[in-house]
Amino acid sequence: MKEYAEFDGLAFAVTWPPNVTFGAGAVAGLGDRARAMGGRKALLVTDPGLVAIGLADKVAGSLRAAGIEADVFGKVKPNPTMAEVTEGVARVSSGGHDFIVALGGGSSIDAAKVISMQLLSGRTIQEIEAKGVDDAPGVPLGFIAVPTTAGTGSEATTGALVKDASGKKYLVRSVRCRPAQSILDPELTRSVPARMTASTGMDAFIHAVGSYTNVQVNPIGDVCAQEAIRLVSGNLLKAIEDGNDLSARSAMMLASHLAGIAISQKGNDAIHGLSTAVESMVDCTHGESLSALMPHVLRFNHEAAAPRYAQIARLMGRDVAGMTIIEAAAVGIEAMIELRDAAGTCRALREIGVKPEMTERLADLAAKGRSTLINCRKPDRGEIVTLYQAAI
Q1: Largest Cα–Cα distance of the chain, in whole Å?
Q2: How many other β-carbons are positioned within 10 Å of the β-carbon of residue 48?
Q3: At 107, is the pLDDT very low, low, confident or very high (cuts 50, 70, 90)?
Q4: Does 227 have pLDDT greater than 90?
Q5: What is residue 283's predicted lDDT score, i.e. its pLDDT?
Q6: In whole angstroms, what is the distance from residue 330 CA to residue 298 CA?
Q7: Given a cut of 60, is residue 2 above it in pLDDT?
Q8: What count of other Cβ atoms lies within 10 Å of the Cβ of residue 57?
Q9: What distances in angstroms separate CA 58 from CA 43, 44, 71, 139, 359, one per listed residue?
C-alpha cells in the first residue's frame, strides 16, 4: 500500500458534513434549530422501537414546543426498504410537511435521505442510483438528523442504503439531500442494549478500518479514521459493560461520527463489499455481518495493508517497537479480532443465516461492489468465494 511521505502530486477533495451540535442534552435544542431553518411542519422519521419507548413522542413534543407541527412516521425497520420510503414520501406529499427529522440509527437516517431524494427529483430508486439527484431543480426539504446509536455515522455521509422488494440493495448518494444539521446527543444512547452497543460499535470501528486502509488517497479522511479507531478501542467495551457510562458513550458517538466522515472522504473496503452482498440476501444487522467477515479480509489484506495495520496496532495500544512492519501488522490484526471477540459480536456468517450454497451468488454481488474494488488488495471472484467459505 502506497504511503504519501512525499507530497508532490498529492490531490484529493474533502466533502465535509454540514453543521453538527455535540453534547449531552443537545437534543433539547432541536425545535429551535428546526425553526431557525424555516421549518413549520415536520415529519419525524423513526423506528418502531423508539416509538414504543416514547422517545419519538418526546422529540416530537420538543418540536411542537418550538411552534413546529410534528407527525411521527415510525415504520422504518433495520435495512430500510423502498416500501417504507414510498410510504414516507406519500406522508410528506399528502401532509404538507416542509421538514424532515430523522431520529434513530442508520436505517432511519438512510430512509429519510432517500425520502428527501425522491421528493426533490421524482425519480425511481433505479434512476437515483444511476444518475443521482443533485442536478434536480428545486430545493430539498429542511433536514436534521438525530442519531440514537453510535455506529453508522450516517449523519455525516452523503450515501444511503435501501433495498427493494426482491432484497436488492441500492447505494445512492446526494450532497443536497443529506442532513443540513445533525444533533449528536450521547444521552440518547444510554438505553441502547449491550448487544446493540457492541454491534453498532463494531460497525463504527470497521468503517474506520476500511476507510483508513483502502486505496483511496485522502489525508483528512485518514486522520478521522485513526482517531475513530483509537476512540472505539478505548471505549467500546466500557460502553457495553455500563450503558450509563456517559464518557464512554460520548467517545463512541464521536467515533461513529468521525468514521462517517472518513468513509465520506474515502469509501470502505472489501469487508463492507462482502457484507453488503450478505445483507441483500439475509436480513441481519450490519455490524454483525461485518464482524463475521472482518478477520478473513484482514488476513487476506495482511501484506498489502501492512503499514496501516501496524499503525492500527499502535492506535490500539499495542507495543510493536522493534518489530518488522509485517510482524507489527499481524499484531494489529490480532488486536482487531480480540476487540470483536471481547465485544461478543458475530464470529461466523452461519450465525446470521448464511448457507454454503449462497456463496456463488454472494460472490457475484460482492465482486461488483465499489467497496470491494477499492480494497487495498483487489480480490478476484475465486478469492471472494474462498473468503465467504472461510467466514461461514
Answers
A1: 66
A2: 13
A3: very high
A4: yes
A5: 87
A6: 9
A7: no
A8: 16
A9: 14, 11, 12, 29, 45
Cα(296)–Cα(306) distance, integer angstroms: 15
Rounded to an integer, what distance in angstroms lies between the CA atom of residue 235 and that of residue 198? 11
Length, in residues, of the chain: 392
Question: 6 or 262, which is more confident?
Answer: 262
Q: Is the dihedral of CA 218, 224, 228, 229 positive or negative?
A: positive
Neighbours of 193 (CB within 10 A): 10
Instruction: Give the pLDDT confidence of 60-99 residue by residue, as tens digits.
Output: 999 999 999 999 999 999 889 999 999 999 999 999 999 9
- Is pLDDT of 18 > 90? no
Backbone angles phi, psi at 9, to 5 degrees: 85, 0
Would you state the cell numbers that stand for residue 152, as one nine-digit string?
Answer: 453508522
Output the CA angle 194-197-198, nearest 5 degrees.
90
Q: 133-142 as b/e, with b when 16 or more CB fall inside 10 Å? A: beebeeebbb
Which cell numbers hold the place of 370?
A: 465499489
The DSSP output letter for 81 is B
Exposed/middle/buried for 379, CB within 10 Å: 0-12, 13-18, 19+? buried
Q: 279 near 366, Cβ under 8 Å?
A: no
Q: Which three cell numbers stand for residue 91?
A: 406522508
Residues facing residue 104 across a β-bridge: 147
Terminal-to-terminal C-alpha distance of the chain: 28
**Verdict on whether the full-model pTM lies above 0.85:** yes
- For residue 328, give the nearest of 305, 349, 351 by alpha carbon: 305
